[in-house]
């Protein structure tokens, strides 16, 4: 099993116990050391103190299990307002929020779309304004994010300051 999969498997029960969901996990070399970045969230938003507590719990768990042999740093943070929408859960979280979507190739002459996320199907997402809506095939989406400016007015979220755990 790849180290990233082992990490995800180990932290999942800790996240579930705290009613957090993991948005993304990356583990990569930066300079001489490795960085484990975990983006976590929960209904209503995750606080900086909750990120710090989760960071410490994950650090202890990983140290105890000995999964990571390299020197590394853990960074746990909120995905912030401009979080990428990739998985079904990301789109469900963003439902009824304003989003910006770009496509790999133009659809009906456009490759940039914005509007309220209205629907999510197996192979499509639907965004719209007022009575007009656009259905976008998921495989055509190059990038999807919550519209930062509009989202601030709709639902204030926590910032994405990082809390670090050194090993």
Protein described:
With 167 residues, the chain is of the alpha+beta class. The protein has 2 domains: 3-81 and 159-166, RimP-like superfamily, N-terminal (GMP Synthetase, Chain A, domain 3), CATH 3.30.300; 88-154, Ribosome maturation factor RimP, C-terminal domain (SH3 type barrels). It contains 4 helices and 9 strands; from the N terminus they run H-E-E-H-E-H-E-E-E-E-E-H-E. It has helices spanning 3-17, 48-65, 88-94, 148-154, and strands at residues 21-30, 33-41, 72-77, 98-107, 110-120, 124-129, 132-137, 141-146, 163-166. The protein has a 5-stranded antiparallel beta sheet. Strand 4 and strand 5 form a beta hairpin. Helix 1 (3-17) packs across helix 2. The longest helix has 18 residues, at 48-65. The protein is elongated, with a radius of gyration of 18 Å. The two termini are 23 Å apart. Residues 150-167 have low confidence and may be disordered.
Number of domains: 2
Major sheet, described briefly? 5 strands, antiparallel
General shape:
elongated
> How many strands appear in the DSSP assignment?
9
Structural class: alpha+beta
Spatial separation of the terminal alpha carbons: 23 Å
CATH architecture of the largest domain: 2-Layer Sandwich
CATH level-1 class of the largest domain = Alpha Beta
The helical percent reads 25-40%
Oligomer: single chain
Written as H for each helix and E for each strand, in order along the chain, the element string is: HEEHEHEEEEEHE
Give the averaged pLDDT, no decimals.
84
Beta percentage is 35-45%
Radius of gyration: 18 Å
Are there runs of 5+ residues with pLDDT below 50, and where? 150-167
**Order of strands across the biggest sheet?**
7-6-5-4-8
Task: Identify the CATH homologous superfamily of the largest domain.
Answer: RimP-like superfamily, N-terminal
């Amino acid at each position: 099993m790849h180290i990233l999969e082992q990490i995800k498997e180990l932290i999942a029960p800790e996240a579930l116990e705290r009613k957090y969901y993991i948005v993304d996990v990356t583990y990569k070399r930066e300079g001489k050391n490795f960085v484990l970045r975990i983006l976590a969230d929960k209904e209503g938003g995750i606080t900086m103190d909750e990120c710090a507590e989760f960071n410490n719990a994950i650090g202890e768990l990983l140290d105890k299990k000995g999964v990571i042999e390299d020197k590394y740093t853990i960074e746990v943070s909120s995905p912030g307002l401009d979080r990428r929408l990739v998985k079904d859960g990301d789109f469900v979280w963003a439902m009824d929020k304003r989003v910006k979507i770009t496509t790999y190739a133009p659809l009906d002459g456009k490759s940039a779309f914005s509007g309220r996320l209205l629907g999510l199907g197996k192979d499509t997402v639907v965004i719209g304004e007022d009575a007009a809506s656009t259905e976008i095939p998921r495989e055509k989406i190059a990038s999807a994010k919550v519209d930062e400016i509009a989202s601030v007015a709709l639902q204030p979220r926590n910032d994405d300051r990082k809390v670090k755990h050194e090993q």
